[in-house]
Every structure is written in structure tokens, then in C-alpha cells.
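Box 3.1. Reading complex inputs
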Amino acid sequence: MELISLHVQNFRQFYGEQSVHFSTDHDQNVTVIHGSNGSGKTTLLNAFTWLFYDNISLPKPDKLVSERAVAEADSGDSITVSVSLVFEHEEAKYEATRVKEFGKREGISAVEQSSEIRLEFTDEHGNLKTRSNPGTMLNQIMPERLKEIFFFDGETIDELSAIDGQEKIQESIRNIMGLSILERSTRHLEHAVEKYEQIAQEQGSEELSNLISEKQNITQKITTKEETVKSHQQSKSETESEVSDIEDKLSQLEGSRELQVERDNLEQELTDIDSDLENINDDIAREISERGFLPFAMPAVEQTGKMLQTKRDKGEIPSDIKTHFVEDLLELGECICGRPLETGTEAYNEVKGWRERAGSTEIEETAMSIVGRLSELGNDQEKLYSEVERHLSRRTQKANKKQEIQERLDEISSQLSDEEQESIADLESRRNNLLGQIGEYDEKVRNLNADIDSLKDTRKTLEDEIAEAKEENEKAQLARRRAQAAAYLQSQVSTLFRQYQDEVRQNVNERVNEIFQNIIAKNYYAKISDDYSLQILKDVGDTSEIPVAQSQGERQVASLSFIATLISLARERYESDENATYFKGGIYPMIMDSPFGSLDPTYQERVSRMLPEMAQQVVVMVTQSQWSEAVANEMEQVAGEHYYFDYHDPGEEYSTDFEYTDIVRKSGGDY
Amino acid sequence: MSSSELPEGVDEETITRMMRRVLEAEKDKLHMGNPIGINDDIESIIEDEIK
């Protein structure tokens, strides 16, 4: 970032429009602003923080408007307060402006009416564009957390070397050098690891393996039962074959042939009857399916029929007059009796009244159609009753015939069992036993098939549950992989962070001491300790060193050395060829209010000698007392721009009732 | 789970890409003291890269 110019308007004691153009000459990179105590040096520093962060560290921070501007405005007038900074950043030219409009009230009060921040920039084609996120962008360019580094007050800067400055020092190192990105990533990746581990724990379970095991168990049971069914069917088939053999023998024996032949015929007839009974049952089911609703619907059908018939009997349907006919008469403008039908006449209204009583053709046709259909429904119901009755009658006949045949078959079996010829009776007895076994096989197969159906239903339910559990298991596996990837990534980032942090701390240590020793007169060392405190030490032997009691001036030099170190290292990093987007440093100006605040003349001279080298661009605000001859001698050579604050004090100037400051540019001479 | 082991099916190239994307997301919110939404951003990157 390179500062080009700052413009303030009615900001605190800066009345009207005032500007500072900063030196951009790299050989004379210092801009010096001279001002007495209370003339506006700290206010100008606060103009930067107000513009960047809407923040002011001054007494009465709500008193933004120049008192003189308020006094000179008429009641109801609008007064503009603005700060605008033109700067270059990463090869683009920006203009940041914060504006507040105030309305003049009675007396010297003004009330804020509107507030706006703008950030315009010129792109690579020279086009002026506006950033839609000015606040965010400005905060990225000059982070608010580091405002005490960029815009520092020499009177309080020694706080950095105090014990409570550790956190600020650590954060400054991390931020300016770009290490905060790595440090934050480490923390946020830890959060991601915890989240995915939690998901994996919630989703993963032993449920899936239990379900699969249960399904395998059920499948095994089904297989066993199906094998048993096959075995029974095989046994039944063999038994049926043996029965058939017996019946063949009975057909061949003289004493049983006739009865066996009769039995064969009856059994065939019995098979046919069973088939007929099945067909009759199908016919009954179909009849009920197609017309079974009629007995339930008929009361409503009959009531509707009666209602429509009543309307017909009364002549309400069909209507004597049709709507279309009435409308045609009204459109023609002539009645069937020949009278003219003009709108608004009595005749017209009379005919128009017919339209209300006329029937709709569509409704009448529908009603007539319903009457016809209702009549058909009544016939259908009769047909249903007669058909079902016919099927039931046929079924009764077949059932009676079946019973008759079964009784005859039983009789035949008794006759054969009682046959005097022993072989015939034995054969019949054996046949009856075998038929009993066949019945048992049938019952067993039926029971087994019912069990198999039930087991298959259970297996289907298990398969659905397994599919669901598999889906959850896949989620758990994915969460575990993500947790592992996040943990691995966190470990890599953490290693990188420690590596860069050690490297930066070592570089900061070397540089801060180098700058410190160039300024300080004594044999002291400045050091950033392991716990990030800025210490001043002195040697007491070959290897040992002890902290020294620091004066305010020494602490100020140490703090200044630290800030200069950060800014110079960030700049070196930014200009290096090393490709590290998250550790790239940056170019920052140093903007200092009273940097020689508590220093004795020797330190003032040395600091002023070092200042131009501390940053690419330096802005220094000094009082007359701080601008000693020694300082002036050092700074004259490197100061590209000089300004002074022309402070108007109503206590000393009778021409004004309010204090205000003009910023005046000078090219040299006394200030 | 060891943080020094790459998960199955994830290569170093993926990790490098994830690191670049995560650090870019952090950089975008560096100006915020409390970077709201950064955890969601990082999870989106992880879920996008590890499917």
C-alpha cells in the first residue's frame, strides 16, 4: 500500500476542505507534519482510523463536525463531514471515502442524517469502478486489529513492550506476516475433524452385521424347509405310484375288476366335478365383482329416479321454453307476436323474464339420460340376482353329485375290504393306508409352504432394513474418510505454521535487535521471547543475559524497533520470489504521531536517522519541541513533503469565535 | 485414526488442493475477528474433495 493523498472536510477542527499529499519519492520517502500540542496531529491520525474502521480514539468521539462549520451554517442546512484517502494497493489505484451528512439544529448542534462509505478503484484498463464491499475490503488492506501498528501514537507505543503486550505482539507477527491464516486454519480444521468423527460415531453401528446374520439364518431355514417339501413331494409321488400299482392289480383280479373299473370311472368323474365347482365359484366371484355394488346403490338410485320422474310428471323437464330461443328473440328485437322488443321497454323486460324460467338444453338432456340409465341399473340388479341364483343352483347340484360319488367310493372300498379273497382285501387295506399317508404328506407340505411364505416375508423386511443400514454405514465410512482427511490436512497446516512461525520469530529477533542496537546507546539487546514478550536484556557473561529495568524511552525504542521490523520483513516477504499465497507479507506505510515523544535528544537523532529505512513510506507528525536541530538535520534530506498545522485559537485571535486548523503545505524553511 | 496417514483413496495432490482452498477461504475472512461461516466453508471444501 502506498499513500498518495488524504482529504478531510469539516472533520473535527479541520474546517472546510483540507488535504495532505504524501511523498511518494522513494529517496525522500518521509512526509513530515508539524503541529503544536492540541493543533490536530492526533485528530489527523484518527481521520485514518475513522475512514478505515469508523473508529475514533479522542475525547467526545460523537463530535465529528467542525464547530466553525456548524456555527456558520443556517438552521436546517446540511453539513458534510468526510475523509478521503487516495492510495495504491497491489497495482491498482483506490480512493476510499467515508461521508456523513449532518443537519444543523438550533444553536451549534448538528444531527447525523446519513452515512456512507465508498471504495472506488481504477482497473487495469483505466476504468473507474466501485467496490460493493468497501468496509470488508479496507479491513483486508489494513486490518483493524493491527491499527495500533499502522497508526501509532508515540506517546503510548511503549505499551507494546509491557507485559500485556505479548498477545498483541504475537498477533501482530502472525497477521502482518500472513501466519494468522495458518493458525486459524489449524483451529477450524480441528472443528471439522470433530464434526466428521461425531457423524461417523452416530451413523456407524453393529446393526448391519446383525441384520445380515439374521437374514442368512432365515435363508438357511427357508432352504431347509424347501428341501423337506421336495422330500415329501417325492415320497407322495412314490406313494401315489404304489397306489396306482395296487389299483392296476385290483383291475386284473377277477373278484375286484368290476369294482375297480367303477372306482376308476367315479374318481375321474369326481375330478371333473371338482373342476366344474372351481369354474362355478369363479363365475360367482366375477358376477359379484362386476355388479355386486347394485344392491347397496339401489336405494339411492330409486330415490333419484323418483325425483326426476316427479319433475317429468309436473312438466318441469323438459321445459316448454328454451334459453336459446328467448335469447334469439331478444337479439332479433321482435317477439313471436310481432311486437318490437326494444331494450328497457315493458315488452322487452317481459320476454327477458322468460329467460330466467327457461330450461338449459344441456341440463335437460343430462337429466333425461340419467332417467334412462337408472332404469338400466334396475334391470342389472335383477340380472345379478338371477345369475348368482343360477350359479348357486349348479354348485349345489355338483356338490350333491360329489357327495353321492364319495359315498359310492366308500362303499366300493368297503366291499373290496370285505372280499373273501384274501389278496384283494389286503390290497385294498394297503391302498387305504397309502392314501392316508398321501393325505399326511399334503398336510405337511401345506404347513411347510405356509412357513416358507412367512419366512420370505420376514426376509424381505430384513432386506429393506439392510439396505437402509448399508446407506447409513456408507455415510459413516464417508464421514470417517473426511475426518481422516481433515486430520491429515490439519497436521500438514500445523507443521507448516510452526515451521513458518519459528522462521519468522528468528527473523524478527535478528532484525528487532539490529534496529534497537542502532538506536540505543547502551549495550542492551532487544528480543522476542518464546512467550512473545518484547524484552530488553543485557549481557552479564559469556552466555547469560538478564532483563534490565527499562525507561519509558527505552521501551519506546524497543516498540518502534519491533514495528519497523514487522513492516520491513513483511515488505521483504512480499517482494521475494517465493510462492506462498498464505504467507506473502505486504507493503505497509508507517504513520506516526510524535514518534520522538519520550526520547532524549540522542535517541531522537538516531530514531530520525533510522526512520526512512523502516518502511517504504513514512508519515511523521511532530511538535516544535520534537523537531530539534539534530532531528531536522537528519530528516531534511529524506523528507519529500512538509506540512504544518495552522491552528486558530479563539483565545488568542479575536477574529474567530471557534477553534479550527488549516493544513498548510510548505516546501522548506522554518515551521 | 492417525493424523499422519492419508485416508484410503485420497492422494497428496487432493490434500494440496484442499490446503490451498482452505487457506484461501481463511484469507477471505481474515479481516473478521469472528469469521462467521468459515466452518461451513471448510466443510464444503472437504465434502467437495472427499466424496
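In summary: Chain B has a mean pLDDT of 86.
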